Amino acid sequence: MRTFLAILLTCLTVNILAAEPSISAESAVVAELSTGRILWQKNGHQRMSPASTTKIMTGLLLVENTEPSDMIRVPNGGADIEGSSIYLKLGERLNAQDLLYGLMVRSANDGAATIALHVGETIGGFARMMNERAEELGCTSTFFANPHGLDEGGHETSAADLALITAEAMKHERFRDAVSQTSVVIERSINQENRLLLSKNRFLKEYEGATGVKTGYTSIAGRCYVGSIEKDGLRFLTVVLNSEDWVSDTTILADWALANLEEQTIANAGDLTPEIKVEGAGSHQFVYEQPLQGLTLSGDEIPRTPEFRLTHSSLPIEKGAVVGLAIIDLADGGQISAPLIAAEQIKTPTVSSAFESFAKAGPAGVVIICALIGGSFLMRRRARSFNKVYRK
């Protein structure tokens, strides 16, 4: 009997270990697409050279600081950068969206430099913007020295930080569009011979459900890739850094995620919350603007009761205004959240509505009403007495 149990335990252990993805990459993560929350990792917080996956941050800052139709002139220092290029010419003009295509589809280093000089005025100024934005997103292992990812001392990030940066960038439709293209034709004012851009991202063509994001390679960084997958109702990111075979490693991670993750929904967009106390205005129900949901390993349960955090600063609150968040803390230290909006206008209470609210509170409310009436009566009596004395 003991022998049988030992064999059974061994088999179960082998199956559990077999479920773990085995990859060549030195560092890797699987993360939730909407938040960047880590679901699986291998040295996920190790500082690594990111090569051209750096351009995810460059693209994020471009979409946050320009409109698609903004015309950008190639300045001194924006052309003739080594490595991948769209062969920009000094003085050439492109709109911001076409420059984003050059950056993310063709991995243009000259495009990255041009963006940096346009948005940050200098390469150093743009690098400071990159690092400030990374800190705002919660990155803890990141220092960017340039906008393109060419090897430079101290230019490092981590797979976990890249997941956070990518999750933020993928919130922008312009960015999602750019990273999903296998080819695109752009408009150019000078170099008409290099309008067709072909993507280096093989994964987009080779894996069903792949929607992006960015390849990278230098001799120091090795093969790198940040991927996004949307399939079977799941949306997640994969990051591999210093990989011997980035396509194989990413495929293994994507297959593992599809087999082992599930989406759990606590509330759908449009659902009403329970009544929540609003300071100075009684209790009200609010509407979930987005689903409250998160990815978990199959079999793990997300707590079902969210915490409601209202952030409105003053009354009245207009119907449809974002008033706070519904938040659930997860066992792995992460969070899922969804914005809450006002289902109706919440007005500043009048005296009569305040009395009505107290009355609804039952016996305690009646006591408060009586105390208020009594206090008001005493104040009027004292005022009359004061007036009589004053008149004498």
Characterise the protein shown here.
This protein is α+β, with helices and mostly antiparallel strands. Helices cover 36% and strands 23% of the residues. The chain has helices spanning 2-19, 55-65, 96-104, 109-120, 123-136, 159-169, 173-179, 203-206, 246-260, 351-360, 363-391; strands at residues 27-32, 38-42, 71-73, 93-95, 183-185, 196-198, 210-218, 222-231, 234-243, 261-267, 276-277, 283-284, 286-288, 292-297, 307-310, 322-329, 335-342. The strands form six sheets. It has a five-stranded antiparallel β-sheet, with helices on both faces. The protein is globular and about 80 Å long. It starts with a helix and ends with a helix. Residues 1-18 and 386-392 have low confidence and may be disordered.
Please write out the topology.
Blueprint: H1 2-19, E1 27-32, E2 38-42, H2 55-65, E3 71-73, E4 93-95, H3 96-104, H4 109-120, H5 123-136, H6 159-169, H7 173-179, E5 183-185, E6 196-198, H8 203-206, E7 210-218, E8 222-231, E9 234-243, H9 246-260, E10 261-267, E11 276-277, E12 283-284, E13 286-288, E14 292-297, E15 307-310, E16 322-329, E17 335-342, H10 351-360, H11 363-391
Antiparallel strand pairs: 1-2, 1-9, 3-4, 5-6, 7-8, 8-9, 10-14, 11-12, 13-17, 15-16, 16-17
Q: What CATH architecture of the largest domain would you give?
A: 3-Layer(aba) Sandwich
Strand content: 15-25%
Report the CATH topology name of the largest domain.
Beta-lactamase
Instruction: Tell me the major beta sheet.
Output: 5 strands, antiparallel
Order of helices and strands: HEEHEEHHHHHEEHEEEHEEEEEEEEHH
Global geometry = globular
Helix count, DSSP H or I runs of 4 or more residues: 11
Tell me how many strands there are: 17
The CATH superfamily title of the largest domain: DD-peptidase/beta-lactamase superfamily
Q: Low-confidence stretches at least 5 residues in length (pLDDT < 50)?
A: 1-18, 386-392
Mean pLDDT: 88
Alpha carbon gap, first and last residue: 107 Å
